[in-house]
Amino acid sequence: MNTFRADLHIHTVLSPCGDLEMSPDIIIAKAKEMKLDIIGITDHNSTRQCAVVRDLGAAHDIVVLSGAEVTTREEVHCLAFFETDELLDEFQCYLDENLPAIPNDVRQFGYQVAVDAANNIVFEEKRLLISALNQNIDQVEAMVHRLKGLFIPAHADKTRFSLYAQLGFLPPDLQVDALEISPFQEPGEFFQLHPESLTKSLISGSDAHYPHQIGSRITVFEMENRGFAEIRKTLHKNGARTAKILN
């Protein structure tokens, strides 16, 4: 069995709240400095920066899970990851179809641009990415799993934009692959507050919006390899015992 260090919640320059220094090359350089084996790219309601980060990560032996941090109609933030470009593109179409046509105000929220490996701007999203989709949490979860993805409610302990803050409970029929807790929450305390989550795996990541935050909170996976299927199996195998969370 091998041990892998993972930070599965990282924003790029594409997120309006992400710093303009969160370019693919800087993200990978910082991940390498922090000795990360796996990272997750999770921009708000968009997957358009994933491929460049993934390809650059591969050149430095860092596995990049491609996905997004989705905001449901209830304003619950959820991480979603997909194994292939085809599935990622299909999910991007779903996001495009359900993101409201609310224009981004650059002065208030920040730029929303995707860049290539040389940091040239190749795309700018005009709609505000931090808006809630026109889809509830059950619909988002169903779509993620139809596309064979991983569905993980984000920072479940937070008092805003989390499963418990927005819904008040963990719906028993919601099919989650894990729950994420924020860098400020310890697993034992979370389980005491929410004993119904004891059957779920917990992960935690940095939720990095700035380079210095990358790797500041990690999940350690014990598994055979870093493949998507192995990550899914590990999250499902032994519940909360499968991953160790480290500051």
Short description:
By secondary structure, the chain is α/β, with parallel strands linked by helices. The protein has eight helices and eleven strands.
Structure notes:
It contains 8 helices and 11 strands. The protein has one domain (2-246): TIM Barrel (Alpha-Beta Barrel). Helices cover 28% and strands 23% of the residues. It has helices spanning 24-33, 50-59, 85-98, 106-109, 137-146, 163-167, 187-193, 228-237, and strands spanning 2-10, 38-44, 63-71, 77-82, 113-115, 121-124, 150-153, 179-181, 202-204, 218-223, 243-246.
List the helices and strands and how they pair.
Layout: E1 2-10, H1 24-33, E2 38-44, H2 50-59, E3 63-71, E4 77-82, H3 85-98, H4 106-109, E5 113-115, E6 121-124, H5 137-146, E7 150-153, H6 163-167, E8 179-181, H7 187-193, E9 202-204, E10 218-223, H8 228-237, E11 243-246
Parallel strand pairs: 1-2, 2-3, 8-9
Antiparallel strand pairs: 1-10, 3-4, 4-7, 5-6, 10-11
Helix pairs in contact: 1-2
